[in-house]
Write a structure and sequence with these properties.
four-stranded parallel beta sheet, 3 domains, six-stranded mixed beta sheet, alpha/beta, about 425 residues
Length: about 425
């Protein structure tokens, strides 16, 4: 559980001992005239010529193979909204810190002061040779869908909008374990998604890929059904002809996923659900309903939030550092759905393992159960389990440049890194 922080404490953290949270470190020695000649002129000409002749050698002679760009235009910063590119920089620096600390992935935060889709994509494409992967962050919907789609199609390195797919992967892992505890198959469940933005659409897409057949999406105007004429092309993929009201949607539902705002669904609606429902209220920092409100009407519910001060925190840090770790290590061209589902399964399986002593010291002796269905954020085993699952899936689905892949050797290498 986290303790409350103050504004001054947070501001001091960002400016002491030096402004910001990231810096660049060198990986080679530069202590003599000969070192200088190797690092720069004339020695640097040789790798340049090799890469010119074979661009794939950039993975051999440069930092590209372990470098991710964290890119945002600041139009949808969590909890803050459209604050602009520059004001989003502390968040993007924070993302870079998480990449480095959790998965030893280097990254540059890049804040792009551009909201036009064409211009934004052209800027990202122009700088993409620098990187082995691109993590899009805090870009508002629906522009984020088109931006990600276009960059995935036009670039030969993995591109992922974490606000969409990170949340989808973690909640899918949680859903896998929670449904198992309920004794229900995914294909037999009724799922309600409250919210129709980037993460809600990504979650719903992944749920369907994982086996969910009966899914009802709701936006600020209610159920997205066939009778409505105000739906964009992204919402049209989730129309239902079975129900038209929120009450009908929630009746006997096995799960509700809240990715909206406080109060977007009520205790009264939750009371209509199955006796032991899954209730994920992920609006942050204030959830749609607090856990104690859910328990008032459904005491047997399995509850998750986006907050660290309640059990079952849905935290994207369980996914993105390790997904990119695996993708970079086999030099993938894309992050496909098979890789995402492999990551979700690895996360779900790790929750069933006993906590290590260092985790017990941080979180107490948590055990797999209703209040522990996804791993703790500081579980170092995530890098081994998730990264290896992603890398192996990339090789098996043919999107990896690395062909001679030894899974056992790779897992051993990751263990040594941990």
């Amino acid at each position: 559980m986290s303790s409350k922080i103050t504004k001054n404490e947070a501001l001091d953290y960002h400016r002491v001992p030096s402004p910001g949270k990231v810096a660049i470190a060198t990986t080679t020695k530069l202590e003599s005239q000969r070192d200088l000649s190797l690092a720069y002129s004339p020695g640097v000409a040789y790798p340049c010529e090799e890469i010119q002749a074979d661009p794939e050698l950039a993975y051999e002679y440069t930092s590209k193979r372990n470098l991710v760009a964290v890119i945002s235009n600041g139009t949808a910063v969590l909890g803050l909204g459209d604050i602009g590119a520059l004001a989003s920089k502390p968040v993007m620096e924070g993302k870079a810190v998480l990449f480095k600390k959790f998965a030893a992935v280097d990254s540059f935060d890049i804040e792009v002061d551009e909201t036009d889709i064409d211009k934004f994509c052209n800027i990202v494409k122009a700088i993409s040779p620098t990187f082995g992967g691109i993590n899009l962050e805090d870009i508002k919907a629906p522009e984020c869908f088109e931006i990600e789609k276009r960059l995935i199609e036009e670039l030969d390195i993995p591109v992922m909008h974490d606000d969409q797919h990170g949340t989808a992967i973690i909640t899918t892992a949680a859903l896998m374990n929670a449904s198992e505890m309920m004794g229900k198959k995914l294909e037999d469940m009724k799922v309600v998604v409250v919210g129709a933005g980037a993460s809600a659409i990504a979650c719903s897409t992944m749920y369907k890929e994982s086996g969910i057949k009966n899914l009802i999406m709701c936006d600020s105007k209610g159920v997205i059904h066939t009778g409505r004429t105000d739906l964009n092309k992204y919402k049209l993929g989730f129309v239902t002809d079975k129900v038209t009201t929120m009450e009908e949607a929630f009746t006997d539902a096995d799960m509700v996923l809240g990715l909206s705002r406080p109060g977007s669904f009520t205790k009264e609606l939750v009371s209509l659900m199955a006796e032991e429902p899954i209730v994920f209220t992920l609006a942050n920092p204030t959830p749609e309903l607090f856990p104690e409100e859910v328990r008032e009407v459904k005491p047997k519910a399995i509850i998750g939030t986006g907050r660290s001060d309640f059990p079952n925190q849905v935290n994207n840090v369980l996914g993105f550092p390790f997904i990119f770790r695996g993708a970079l290590d086999v030099q993938t061209k894309k992050i496909n759905m098979t890789m995402k589902i492999a990551a979700a399964k690895a996360i779900a399986d790790l929750a069933k393992e006993p906590l290590t002593p260092d985790l017990i010291a941080l979180f107490g002796n948590l055990k797999y159960g209703r209040e522990y269905i996804i791993p703790a954020p500081f579980d170092k085993r995530l890098m081994v389990e998730v990264s290896s699952a992603v890398a192996n899936s990339a090789v098996e689905t043919g999107v990896a440049r690395v062909k001679d892949f030894d899974l056992a050797a790779y897992r051993k290498k990751l263990s040594h890194m941990v």
